[in-house]
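Ticket #4471: structure output looks truncated?

Reporter: J.K.
Steps to reproduce: submitted the chain below (150 residues) through the standard prediction queue, then opened the result file.
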Amino acid sequence: MRLSALPLLLFTVVACGTPPPPQPPAPPVVTTTVAVTTTPPIPDRQPHTLVLNATGSGDAMLNKIKYSLDGQVQEEGATQLPWRKSLSVPADGLPHSWELSITYTAGRSAKLDVFALYDGKEMGRTAGGGGGTGNTKMTGGASIGGRVNG
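Returned output as attached by the reporter:
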């Protein structure tokens, strides 16, 4: 009886030592990476406006107009009043220098007003005019200048 129990015992030991059947593969793990970037708000980068003006009354005549922004000089010849020039100033936070110089001829009753506006605010003003008697004309000059932040 011992011998007949041995094959049964071997079968039982062999059956117990068999590994379990393989498991189905696990579904793949999907990872999604989302990059979130935050950009600080950009300040208004529209250029500023510098408007140079010469107005007046009477028989004033502008002989020569010279203006500059950051050293870039421009010149214009003789013209009648009123005169106006609009310049763009970069919005870079840096200081920018400007200047306006006008030579004129004016009769006795002439008046001249020279001024600059930066984004609508007055930045400088000067005035001139005629003099003398009869039909005499005077020659004069007027200039203004300054610095603005872009």
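Triage note (M.O.): checked the attachment and the full token line is present. Strands lie at 48-57, 61-69, 72-76, 79-80, 83-89, 95-106, 111-118, 121-129, 138-149.
Status: closed, working as intended.
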